[in-house]
Automatic annotation (TrEMBL):
The keyword RNA-binding does not apply. GO terms for molecular function: lycopene beta cyclase activity; oxidoreductase activity, acting on paired donors, with incorporation or reduction of molecular oxygen. Keywords: Isomerase. It comes from the Bacteria. SUPFAM superfamilies: FAD/NAD(P)-binding domain (SSF51905). This is Lycopene beta-cyclase CrtY. Belongs to the lycopene cyclase family. Its EC number is 5.5.1.19. NCBIfam families: carotene-cycl, lycopene_cycl. InterPro entries: CrtY (IPR008461), FAD/NAD-bd_sf (IPR036188), Lycopene_cyclase_b/e (IPR010108). One of its GO terms (biological process) is carotenoid biosynthetic process.
Length: 418
């Protein structure tokens, strides 16, 4: 006797549910998917370090297109640029700290007791290597970034719990810029250089290409980073000429260079005007932007580390979170910083548009005669209304009619958009 077999058919909704469950078995679960940081630069390193502090970090995957993560850079900051509690997680990445700093101008030499610290590409890479939850993939070309995955140029996809784009500065018609360009040589000298602390600006040098100063970081009694910096209207960088000028400067200091340990160079944006809404309209609304990619840097000094620290702390406060949620939070933070930085953009317009190039150094010389706490708040991007009044009061080192012509930001943006 043959028994008939009845086929039991699941309702459609239940069939779909079970099929989805089987599929999920082959996909990384949300809690297993890493936080993907696109670009192995300062912003990504700050986020990874902050989330991994005390060994409690999530799985983090950093994707870098070049063969060398973190490039060849020195990132510096003043002690007052960050909160005191930030040093707990920043310290493992710091290459050197000093108790003071100084500036030199033609008619002013001043030592400040403000602490100063520097991170290098090497110190950051070493710090990242100690984090067991962080993986860095170099030579990885990214094609498309989505909220929950990154698609590589070869077509493969990396699933993610959250994706943050930290690939560095991206030119934008929403920004009116001047430029800070530099070449730095870290050198070993035959004899001690005699520097106890960094020289943030030695503007007693010949002024050319706009505002020029030499930046000095003493890493040992005989090793020093000598960086020739120019604030200029154009972004073209003559590497050979600036390197030659560094050699001339060393000779003038009585230093003999035994060997060059490494070289770095760059062109940083100095923001004269910034159309916030247009800038962010260019960005995907559901992908968090970080660092220079988000326009988060000090408009006048070009320093980016303090802003990267603020964003890293923001990410830590929100974690765990999805890309769209974090993207909105970073945009709100950037809008607040944009409003707070309007005064610095005004100073930049005075420096680049009101002051004649050969007299730009007088603007900074006058600034460095002000009280040290005011200078510290300026670098930290926390100038008060009283600070602003102190900076602007008195006879300006630029013609009054030229200063009045740059007061408003809107005309610069309007001219840019024509």
């Amino acid at each position: 006797m043959i028994q008939s077999r009845r086929r039991f058919v699941l309702p459609s909704a239940e069939r779909q549910s079970r099929a989805a469950s089987r599929l999920e078995c082959f996909l990384p679960q949300p809690q297993e998917r890493p936080l993907v940081l696109v670009g192995a630069g300062l912003a990504s390193a700050m986020i990874a370090q902050r989330l991994s502090f005390a060994g409690k970090g999530p799985s983090i995957l950093m994707l870098e297109g070049s063969d060398k993560p973190f490039g060849e850079h020195t990132w510096s900051f003043h002690d007052h640029d960050v909160e005191s509690e930030d040093f707990a997680w920043l310290t493992p990445l710091i290459a050197h700290r000093w108790k003071g700093q100084s500036v030199r101008f033609q008619h002013l030499k001043r030592h400040l007791t403000s602490g100063y610290a520097s991170l290098t590409s090497e110190s950051v890479a070493a710090g990242m290597a100690k984090l067991s939850n962080v993986e860095i993939r170099t030579g990885t070309r990214v094609g498309t970034i989505l909220a929950d995955r990154v698609v590589l140029d070869d077509g493969s996809a990396i699933e993610a719990s959250c994706v943050i784009d930290g690939r560095g500065y991206q030119p934008s018609p929403a920004l009116v810029l001047g430029y800070q360009k530099f070449v730095g040589l870290e050198v070993e000298l035959t004899e001690p250089h005699g520097l106890a602390d960094p020289v943030i600006m030695d503007a007693s040098v010949d002024q050319k290409d706009g505002y020029r100063f030499v930046y000095l970081l003493p890493f040992s009694p005989t090793r020093v980073l000598i960086e020739d910096t120019r604030y200029t209207d154009g972004e073209a960088l003559d590497l050979q000429q600036l390197a030659a000028d560094i050699g001339t400067y060393a000779e003038e200091q009585g230093w003999t260079i035994k060997r060059v340990e490494r070289e770095e160079h760059g062109v940083l944006p100095i923001s004269l005007a910034h159309d916030f809404d247009r800038f962010w309209a260019e960005k995907p609304q559901d992908i968090p932007q970080a660092g220079m990619r988000a326009g988060l840097f000090h408009p006048t000094t070009g320093y980016s580390l303090p802003e990267a620290v603020r964003v890293a702390n923001l990410v830590a406060r929100m974690w765990p979170c999805a890309s769209p949620e974090l993207a909105s939070a970073i945009r709100r933070h950037a809008k607040t910083r944009h409003r707070q930085q309007s005064f610095y953009r005004l100073l930049d317009r005075m420096l680049f548009r009101a002051a004649r190039p050969e007299r730009r150094h007088l603007v900074l010389e006058r600034f460095y005669k002000l009280p040290q706490p005011l200078i510290e708040r300026f670098y930290a991007g926390r100038s008060t209304k009283g600070d602003i009044a102190r900076i602007l009061v008195g006879k300006p080192p630029v013609p009054v009619h030229r200063a009045l012509a740059v007061l408003r930001e809107a005309p610069f943006l309007k001219a840019r958009h024509r």
